[in-house]
Amino acid sequence: KRQAAEEEPFRLRFVADTLRAMSTLPKLTYFNGAGRALGLRVALFKAFGKDGWEDHRIEFADWPALKPTTPLGVLPVLTLPDGRVVGQTEAIMRWAGSQSDLYPKDPVQAMLCDEITATCIEVLNKTPPGAGEEGRQKRQEYAAGFLTRALTLLESRAPAEGFFLGELTLADLMASVLTNMILTNDFDHVPASLVSDNFPKLQAHNDRVRADPLVVAYLAAYPN
Predict the structure, then answer these.
(1) Please, what is the end-to-end C-alpha distance for the chain in angstroms?
(2) 26 FRET partner, CA 20 to 30 A, in 17, 41, 92, 177?
(3) Domain GST N-terminal: where (predicted)?
């Protein structure tokens, strides 16, 4: 009861924030960090500019109170201007990409884009917790197994120049999210050398994505 009482003010704030967002701006809710939401945020930034959407970031300490109010108990979630709350990263990503011309209109190109984004999301979803010695060992086993297999697929798809499908799409943004997490040691217990020593095309692709004018403008507006 005490915990519920402590969480109630946060729930009320979240409901109030949702009501304020109705009939105004789309609102993306995710943790206060880049994570898997970077591609979504860049797409929303391109579609609506800095002031045309709400980048609602929460701290991990606030997550237990918010979790029961989300569709599936996970983030990110998107609150539409009419108040509907949508879960599932890939669904939100396609919507945001369609709003920003970062998702292909051609069905085959869209499928190829989905293959890349779904692979990256699957890697993140399957990643075992990294806490403690057991977590470290499981992460290292994961890196040697499925993570390496997924990176091998992405490397085979990565172009020598430019982007996966010619122009910048969600596929490039999500591949960069994953690659950059490893290269910047933000993927606990997975060394940057996994990419730098084995997947040169992915590393070069990540450099091109991070240097793209859209991504540069986004990072200037939202440094974290």
Answers:
(1) 36
(2) 177
(3) 26-104
Give the strand pairing for 54-58 and 77-79: unpaired
Name the amino acid, one letter, at 214.
Answer: L
Tell which residue, 145, 146, 142, 144, has the closest CA to residue 130.
Answer: 142
Specify which residues 86 forms β-bridges with.
Answer: 78
Q: Which pLDDT belongs to residue 15?
A: 52
Domain positions in the chain are 23-99, 107-212
Residue 8: per-residue pLDDT: 56
**Residue 2 pLDDT more than 90?**
no
Q: How open is the CA angle 161-163-169, to the nearest 5 degrees? A: 170
Give the containing element (helix H, strand E) for 5.
Answer: helix 2-21
Residue 151 one-letter amino acid: L
Give the relative orientation of helices 38-48 and 213-221 as an angle to the nearest 10 degrees. Answer: 100
Q: Work out the widest C-alpha separation in the chain, in whole angstroms.
A: 58
Spatial separation of the C-alpha atoms in residues 98 and 118, rounded to whole Å: 16
Strands 54-58 and 27-31: parallel
Q: Confidence class of residue 130 from pLDDT cuts 50, 70 and 90?
A: confident
* Nearest of 155, 147, 103, 145 to residue 123 by alpha carbon: 147
Tell me the CATH number for domain 23-99.
3.40.30.10
Residue 5 in this model has a pLDDT that exceeds 60: no
Q: Which residue, among 62, 71, 72, 76, has the nearest Cα to 14 in the 3D structure?
A: 62
